């Protein structure tokens, strides 16, 4: 289960959140994606929620929905960064989210002697970097994967920073998937079924590292989730 994995994950995660409205059933949805680094320094992205959000899009309601999601996945104290677009209601929710997500989000860096000693060692070490060429470019994630054992504290900080998304594109991609799922044929689909469809598709692709593969026609997990009166027979008659 994803909840168990995130609860046991020994590190911080970053999240992106945004709100989308469909044009068929006129529901709004809040989407949340989780971003983190695995043990081999590969950046991971997975959907946490794609949930109906028909309340007013106020800062208080955004905070309430995100708090529920973070609590369900037990990551409220593991969040390093939260990404929104610059809508005023989103930015207004940030102060209360910072309070919820302490000690990591908005917290101070460690100033222990161990960290200072490791930083001094890092700064005084001469590294050989391979210059960029057309055939081979410097891979910062690969570099940290090879040097993590020498600088474990700095590597932990690097994991948090390097896995932080710089935009809300990840969530917007899921809204695009939602739009593909909720086409004229599937417009009667319930909000709960749409959430399950979007999450299961993303989790399945994440398992096989296929999330970036474009798919014109997503597999319909709920092809029979339609009111009886909306279905047609093989001849196309009602």
UniProtKB/TrEMBL annotation:
Residues 228-238 have a biased composition (Polar residues). Pfam families: Dimer_Tnp_hAT (PF05699). Residues 215-226 have a biased composition (Basic and acidic residues). Residues 215-238 are annotated as: Disordered. It is found in: Nucleus. GO terms for cellular component: nucleus. The keyword Ribonucleoprotein does not apply. InterPro entries: HATC_C_dom (IPR008906), RNaseH-like_sf (IPR012337), ZnF_BED_domain_contain (IPR052035). The keyword Transmembrane helix does not apply. Keywords: Metal-binding, Nucleus, Zinc, Zinc-finger. It comes from the Eukaryota. One of its GO terms (molecular function) is protein dimerization activity. Residues 118-203 form the HAT C-terminal dimerisation domain. PANTHER family: ZINC FINGER BED DOMAIN-CONTAINING PROTEIN 39 (PTHR46481:SF10), ZINC FINGER BED DOMAIN-CONTAINING PROTEIN 4 (PTHR46481). This is HAT C-terminal dimerisation domain-containing protein. It comes from Dipteronia sinensis.
